[in-house]
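Explain this fold:

***
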Amino acid sequence: RELLKLAADSQANLQVAETGDIVYVFPQNFRTILRNKYWRLRWEKWLKKAWDIIFYLIRISFGIILITSIIIMLIAIAVIIIGISSGGGRDNENRRNGETANWAGGVWSLPRIWIMPDFFWIFTGEYEERFYEKRREIESGSGSGRLNFLESIYSFLFGDGNPNKDLEEKRWQYIAAVIRNNNGAIIAEQIAPYLDNIDISKETSEDYILPVLIRFNGYPEVSETGEIIYYFPELQVTASEREKMEIPPYLRENLWQFSMATSGQKMAAIGLGGVNIILALMLGSLLTPGVVEQMGGFIAFVNSIYGILLTYAIGYLAIPLIRYLWLQRRNRKITQRNQQRERQAYLLNTSSRLQQKILYARNYGQQKILTAGDMVYSTEKDILEQTIEKLDGNGEES
């Protein structure tokens, strides 16, 4: 095995001597080839590890940005309010007129009465109790593999990937199992429950089986009764008797999940998103040209990135909403396809006409079992020894 691996890695040639011995011919620079492959594999492994780290940082960065955005806007609002309040009470000359004083007083009363009680509702003991109660419910079911909070923000925004990424692989595995279970001879309707948008009660042709014929090297034949039977010789031959594989009656697609985050994590994500956009709107109303010019420094910096903060606040809630509506539409189509495949499986099992066709095809199907007598060559013995044994066997028969 190690020799085969070395030959494959170094691109060695396989030659058979006249004596029947197998010889591996390695290139002169095989050490260089192996060294280059070693460093290439190490580089690929390092890149994969680096990408895993980068992708994880990307996943948690959205939660970090959200929290950072909230903190920056809270500090900016507090600085502006304190600055306006202290400036308003200094003297009448700094206020310039009563209009400015009324405006400053109105701004002060707004956060004191409206914002402060609502900004920190998410950190109250009552919410934490509900949050951890939800988490305990999740843990009592399946607590393994849960997302942490920063990961749950990414999951809330973008989801957790395609739940049917291996659908095509499963489809072909099921179809191959159907063919093997029927000894290599089937009718077209038997694979309909594993395909998309097929209604065997309305189909006038069997063109939908063509991709299956191409993939598994099958061919059609017409029986004496005029029925079309599809043969797959390569799936008839096995090395030993094989029990029938258990497969589902139809191919079932998984529905897209909005997020793998727990209910508490999703509530926290929505709550923080609401706080974030309220803060952004509040900050926008406070960042007047006069305030920015007067305070400068940190407030001027916040004013320069305000567009980014507002865009993130809007996008944070808009992206999940759009994705939710899109998933609802997509899941409806998946449900329809699953129901259609289920109907095909039901018709296949209840229709007497189809059952007769299946029985007829089964009578034509033969499963060929390879025995020791069918073997032409085996690695267990030398090729010369096997040739002599074969000639002796033919001589005895004659």
In short: The chain is about 65% helix and 5% strand. The first strand starts at residue 13 and ends at 16. The longest helix spans residues 30-88. Strands lie at 13-16, 22-25, 185-186, 219-222, 228-231, 237-238, 368-369.
